[in-house]
Write a structure and sequence with these properties.
The complex is a heterodimer. Chain A is α/β, with parallel strands linked by helices. Chain A is built from 12 helices and 9 strands. Helix content of chain A is 51%, strand content 14%. In chain A, strands 5-4-3-2-1-9-8-7-6 form a 9-stranded parallel β-sheet. The relative contact order of chain A is 0.18. In chain B, the strands form 4 sheets. Chain B has a 6-stranded mixed β-sheet, with helices on both faces. Chain B has a 4-stranded parallel β-sheet with strand order 7-6-5-8, with helices on both faces. In chain B, strands 1-2 form a two-stranded antiparallel sheet. The longest helix of chain B is centred in the middle third of the chain and has 24 residues. Classes of the chains: A alpha/beta, B alpha/beta.
Chain lengths: 276, 393
């Protein structure tokens, strides 16, 4: 699956031009279904290569306070899993972009694994990262995903040992989500100096493009993680914060998200050699 | 991981990949420690001399007369700290020291587990950070004061519903960043593997003492063991040695809150569905899509939308029976035991007493011997419970 997955192909195409892929993240339905679609339009216009979406969940311990607040807003707007898929249908109608999801296991479990991945595939989803499913529990999720041509995305961290990375390469597809540092999602002020070493470790162990996320919030961070060897970057909290900062004005929110995304995309797409 | 942490289909390890190394290290340390006689000896010495084990088994004349059988109370309310929580925090604290960790972190709802962790941190010379929902901080002032007196740092959690489940989320978050120095002292027999097994290991002393004390006094096994169930640690500890002895009925009592039909309760085993939250597959209070509902109980210690996965398995297999009693029934039992026996039970434990008051006579006969685990003392609940009782009158 890895060879033909749209996520892999999109990232590799950027890399072939010495560019990195830009994958922005939003919570589906935040702050409302309609406003969320305008934000997606802004991300695509700004140069997003892949769209990553979180499904709002009441208890998201892998996420920091900014994403949790977005989950809470979306849930308060009445957005639930079926609404999320309806939104994804609309995104698919509007944009021809690969889509990845970040989901907590219970949302998949309650819908039923097969039904969830079938619906995801129908809505144009190419990969799913289950936030609270590590390798030990990945089997049934990865199998159900594979049955519908959806990649089960693995998450590598600075403390993931080599043999685990290798198993992620076997179980997972699409790309490898590299956590730039320990902790939950959220903005940070610097980039871990050890990142280059870890990215090299990940790439040696797994034959998938490696996207770096967690704590990336500025074009400077984007350039730094690309120089460290990342094949692309994932930015979530910094963009979602723009949504939170403009709750009273949806147009201003879309403009702010678009402006930040444009700067991040430009940094991601700047041709550099990893050793620069 | 050497074990899969499953109880039948329940349990498991549903956490971010980021936490797997910490849980793997914890599992290894625990499996190693439980085979180490010196660890056991150190823990036993502290349980005896610091915490006051064994706790008494007391034959309750009033409950025996009311139910019409022999009823014993297992007096965990007399354990240092005022509840069974000390068994667990002492064990996990020693485990943390053995692993070379310098900081204990804990979630707390009512504050009992926070107090028990802060107390053990003071005893063992470990720094303690306690995460507590902002709503609970406001309504549990005495326990907040106790934690601070023990030298713990208290972190109010403003996210989500500002209660226990959010405190757990926040502690997991903090742990993700601080795994190298911090030991997460989990408060109940729930959460990701290996916590349900570790907490059961440290709480099974309750059941082992019950078995030995009942045998010594009567030469037989109890007919039934009754315990309240929030996350389920006192219950799994009291049940543990009897699970493989089918002649002993195991009764878990959940909080029915304002009534099971009102939706305002904390009874996932009686009313919930299987789901994945806080690291394991168990019964969960949730909506149709899998969003976790807030629990409700007059007892903050039972106010939790999930439950330990072994209870889920015991329910699914029918080995244990679970029922629920309301806030009102628990309050009446709280006053009844105080007035009839001179023992003020924790509101949590009052649920177990209430179940026996309501259903004991129909379930048991004169030859039966029932043990109720009185998991904690009720001093912490006085203001709250007396006000609530007054409102009922």
């Amino acid at each position: 699956m890895t060879a033909t997955n749209r996520l892999t192909a999109t990232i590799r195409a950027r890399n072939a031009a010495r560019q990195g892929a830009f994958m922005p993240f939003l919570v589906l339905g935040d702050p409302s279904p309609g406003a969320c679609l305008s934000l997606v339009d802004a991300l695509v216009a700004a140069g997003a290569d892949i769209l990553e979406f979180g499904l709002p969940f009441s208890d998201p311990p892998a996420d920091g306070p900014v994403i949790q607040a977005a989950d809470t807003r979306a849930l308060a707007a009445g957005v639930n899993t079926p609404d999320c898929f309806a939104l994804l249908d609309e995104v698919k109608r509007r944009h021809d972009k690969p889509v990845a999801l970040l989901v907590y296991a219970n949302l998949i479990f309650q819908m039923g694994l097969d039904a969830f991945y079938a619906r995801a595939a129908e809505a144009g989803v190419d990969g799913v990262l289950v936030a609270d499913v590590p390798l030990e529990e990945a089997g049934p999720f990865a199998e159900a995903a594979a049955a519908h041509g959806v990649a089960h995305v693995g998450l590598a961290t600075p403390v993931t040992p080599a043999e685990r990375l290798a198993r992620m390469g076997e179980v997972g597809g699409g790309y490898l989500y590299a956590v730039a540092r320990l902790g939950t999602t959220g903005e940070r002020t610097d980039v871990d100096p050890e990142l280059a070493r870890h990215l090299a470790r990940f790439k040696a162990a797994v034959d998938l493009p490696v996207l770096s996320g967690f704590g990336i919030s500025t074009p400077e961070h984007v350039l730094a993680v690309r120089r460290a060897g990342a094949d692309g970057v994932i930015v979530g909290s910094a963009l979602v914060r723009q949504v939170a900062d403009h709750l009273d004005d949806p147009q201003a929110a879309a403009a702010a998200v678009g402006a930040l995304a444009r700067a991040l995309a430009a940094a991601a797409h700047t041709p550099i050699n990893p050793q620069d | 991981m050497r074990l899969d942490g499953r109880f039948g289909r329940f349990g498991g390890l549903y956490v971010s990949e980021l936490l797997v190394p910490a849980l793997t290290e914890l599992e290894a340390a625990w499996l190693d420690a439980r085979e180490d006689e010196r660890f056991r000896a150190e823990l036993d010495a502290l349980l005896t001399r610091f915490a006051g084990r064994p706790t008494p088994l007391y034959r309750s004349p009033a409950l025996s007369a009311h139910v019409g059988c022999t009823v014993y109370l297992k007096r965990e309310d007399l354990l240092h700290g005022g509840a069974h929580k000390t068994n667990n925090t002492l064990g996990q604290g020693l485990l943390a020291k053995r692993m070379g960790k310098t900081e204990l972190i804990a979630e707390t709802g009512a504050g009992q587990h926070g107090v028990a962790t802060a107390m053990i941190g003071a005893l063992l010379g470990l720094k303690v950070k306690v995460f507590m929902g902002a709503k609970d901080v406001a309504r549990q002032a005495p326990n907040v004061a106790r934690m601070k007196l023990f030298g713990a740092e208290l972190i109010p959690v403003e996210a989500g519903s500002r209660s226990l489940k959010d405190a757990i989320n926040e502690t997991m978050r903090y742990w993700t960043e601080a795994v190298e120095r911090a030991f997460y002292v989990f408060g109940t027999a729930a959460g990701p593997h290996p916590y349900p097994s570790i907490v059961k290991d440290f709480q099974r002393i309750i059941g082992e003492e019950i078995e030995a004390q009942v045998r010594a006094e009567t030469g037989r096994l109890p007919s039934a063991v009754v315990a309240c169930v929030g996350g389920g640690s006192n219950a799994i500890g009291a049940f543990a040695p009897f699970i493989a002895q089918p002649g002993v009925r195991l009764l878990g009592v959940e909080p029915a809150g304002e009534g099971l039909d009102t939706g305002r309760h904390g009874a996932p085993l009686v009313c919930g569905r299987p789901g994945i939250v806080h690291g394991s597959l168990s019964y969960v209070l949730q909506d149709a899509h899998g969003q976790i509902n807030e629990a409700h109980s007059i007892s903050a210690g039972l106010d939790y939308p999930g439950v330990g996965p072994e209870h889920a398995h015991l329910r699914a297999t029918g080995r244990a029976e679970y029922l629920a009693v309301t806030d009102t029934e628990a309050l009446h039992a709280f006053r009844w035991l105080s007035q009839s026996e001179g023992i003020i039970p924790a509101l949590e434990s009052a649920h177990a007493v209430a179940a026996l008051l309501a259903h004991g006579r129909s379930q048991f006969g004169p030859d039966d011997l029932v043990v109720v685990n009185l998991s904690g003392r009720g001093d912490k609940d006085l203001d709250h419970a007396l006000a609530a009782l007054e409102a009922l009158a």
